[in-house]
């Protein structure tokens, strides 16, 4: 499995810099969190990696190749607010859609693809919801369906933009356990995340952003009070201590 390397990524919206000269490496086989205050460029970094937003500068490498050449090896789960839930498609149809990158032009999914999509839906524990319209699902169920679609895509990397936003604690626990299981099976997973108290429990590595890279690396080395003060400002100290983050020496 290959590393994703971000080199000198700069993104601007309407002339304002959203992300400036970010250089960071995403390690394969890890659960990585992207953390920072509102407006720090967390979602922008993810979209910049995937070339979903125009960039002023930057190169994204997947191993030795430009990421664009290896794009189908990466699945993206957007924020729920960006998904059109009125679109008339059932759960199985969403998951089956994940098989399309591996089909020839104008080819339709056959028995093999449908069986694989069923297996992916079973993997996330939602087989009984196959015929439900996506508009009928809870937020947590919807996230699991899109993870199943990523599995059907046979993606090596799964990038999720705030998957826990607006869902209940039980659903969040189910999803993070599922993602940890997928990591243990060899998937690489990157999550835009906002709950600071869960970082040490959820992630192997963390990227700290505030319109630029503050720090990145293993959680036990990177997620320190010193780095978090650089990311959020000194007022964050008390919150971090309550959340069990050790003060950096």
From TrEMBL:
<dbReference type="InterPro" id="IPR003439">
    <property type="entry name" value="ABC_transporter-like_ATP-bd"/>
</dbReference>
<dbReference type="GO" id="GO:0005524">
    <property type="term" value="F:ATP binding"/>
</dbReference>
<dbReference type="InterPro" id="IPR050153">
    <property type="entry name" value="Metal_Ion_Import_ABC"/>
</dbReference>
<dbReference type="InterPro" id="IPR027417">
    <property type="entry name" value="P-loop_NTPase"/>
</dbReference>
<dbReference type="GO" id="GO:0016887">
    <property type="term" value="F:ATP hydrolysis activity"/>
</dbReference>
<dbReference type="InterPro" id="IPR017871">
    <property type="entry name" value="ABC_transporter-like_CS"/>
</dbReference>
<dbReference type="InterPro" id="IPR003593">
    <property type="entry name" value="AAA+_ATPase"/>
</dbReference>
<keyword id="KW-0547">Nucleotide-binding</keyword>
<keyword id="KW-0813">Transport</keyword>
<protein>
    <submittedName>
        <fullName>ABC transporter ATP-binding protein</fullName>
    </submittedName>
</protein>
<dbReference type="Pfam" id="PF00005">
    <property type="entry name" value="ABC_tran"/>
</dbReference>
<keyword id="KW-0067">ATP-binding</keyword>
<feature type="domain" description="ABC transporter">
    <location>
        <begin position="4"/>
        <end position="236"/>
    </location>
</feature>
<comment type="similarity">
    <text>Belongs to the ABC transporter superfamily.</text>
</comment>
């Amino acid at each position: 499995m290959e590393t994703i390397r971000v080199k000198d990524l700069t993104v601007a919206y309407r002339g304002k810099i959203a992300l400036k000269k970010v250089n960071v490496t995403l390690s394969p086989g890890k659960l990585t969190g992207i953390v920072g205050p509102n407006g720090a460029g967390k979602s922008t970094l993810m979209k910049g990696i995937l070339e979903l937003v125009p960039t002023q500068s930057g190169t994204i490498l997947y191993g030795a190749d430009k990421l664009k050449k290896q794009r189908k090896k990466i699945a993206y789960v957007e924020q729920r607010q960006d998904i059109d839930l009125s679109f008339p498609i059932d759960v199985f149809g969403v998951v089956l859609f994940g098989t399309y990158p591996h089909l020839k032009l104008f080819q339709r999914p056959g028995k093999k693809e449908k069986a694989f999509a069923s297996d992916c839906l079973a993997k996330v524990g939602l087989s009984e919801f196959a015929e439900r319209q996506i508009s009928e699902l809870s937020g947590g169920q919807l996230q699991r369906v899109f993870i199943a679609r990523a599995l059907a895509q046979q993606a090596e990397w799964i990038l999720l933009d705030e998957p826990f936003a607006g869902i209940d604690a039980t659903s969040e626990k189910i999803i993070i356990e599922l993602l940890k299981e997928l990591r243990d099976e060899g998937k690489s997973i990157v999550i835009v995340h906002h709950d600071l108290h869960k970082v040490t429990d959820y992630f192997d590595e963390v990227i700290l952003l505030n319109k630029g890279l503050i720090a990145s690396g293993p959680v036990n080395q990177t997620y320190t009070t010193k780095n978090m003060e650089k990311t959020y400002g000194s007022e964050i100290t008390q919150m971090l201590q309550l959340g069990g983050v050790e003060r950096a020496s």
